[in-house]
């Protein structure tokens, strides 16, 4: 009787032991899965899971190059350096990271990641580096000030130790596969604009006439108006700047004033840029890369019915 009665007790004990074993196995499995997921998350940039990384919207990188060519004389050299400094201040006010603003200056003696000598080698090397770093959704803003020459042999920038042909610059910039906004603020700058025209690039030139040999007034006026509000649409700033330049030349009693021109990725027009109303330049803003995503997307209304050549005023 005693052995018979002990059988149910043993069975119950065995069942408890089995349940406890299964519970431990399940707990270990859960812990192991959690550790595996944590390990996978740790391997993703920023510590996010693979799913989160794939679903999160990509942030656009924004870089800027500020190029100060030789001015031609000491007075113009000082003006060029001042323009470069004001441009950097504007970019910082517009939200650019200081580490992504590279200034090329004649006065640079110590080369750093963000301060380079104004030489063709330094500029081309920086563009080659950006070609490796930037992607389609990123932005590159380029500002060029100082002396340049346009003649039957082509356009060239007068850098501190050499000349850089416009064609060479265009080829180097073409290898940087991202959205680009370029401001050619040199004399005879329309010649460089012609070489930089591209469907994924907007280009602004200080003057629309290659015979404009004087240092342009547009750069200083443009920066002054832009500094007031970097979030304004680019076209609005250009229209106001063009009007201010015209008034300045009227006050000088000069028969022929300089007149800026702009390439809107598909149309070329001179100030006051009526042909560009409603186009990409009317939507781009220096201070809003998020809003620019739509402007660069290609879903932009037609900017006019004239061809780039026809929209340019006859000389």
List the keywords.
alpha/beta, Rossmann fold, eight-stranded mixed beta sheet, three-stranded antiparallel beta sheet, 11 strands, 43% helix, globular
Account of the protein in words:
This protein has about 325 residues and is an alpha/beta fold. It has one domain: Rossmann fold (3-Layer(aba) Sandwich). About 45% of the residues lie in helices and about 15% in strands. It has nine helices and eleven strands. The chain has an eight-stranded mixed β-sheet, with helices on both faces. The chain has a three-stranded antiparallel β-sheet with strand order 5-6-7. Strand 5 and strand 6 form a beta hairpin. Helix 3 runs parallel beside helix 7 and helix 7 packs across helix 8. About 40% of the residues are buried. The N terminus and C terminus are likely disordered.
Compute the CA-based radius of gyration: 30 Å
Q: What general outline do the C-alpha atoms trace?
A: globular
Biggest beta sheet attributes: 8 strands, mixed
Class from helix and strand fractions: alpha/beta
Helix content: 40-55%
Count of helices? 9
Biggest sheet, spatial arrangement of strands: 3-2-1-4-8-9-10-11
Topology as H/E string? HHEHEEHEEEEHEHEHHEEH
CATH topology type = Rossmann fold
Q: Domain count, please report it.
A: 1
Which consecutive residue ranges, at least 5 long each, have pLDDT under 50? 1-6, 27-57, 300-315
Q: Which second-level CATH architecture applies?
A: 3-Layer(aba) Sandwich
**What's the count of strands?**
11
Kindly estimate the percentage of residues that lie in beta strands according to DSSP: 15-25%
Average pLDDT taken over every residue: 79
Terminal CA distance reads 123 Å
Q: Give the class-level CATH name.
A: Alpha Beta
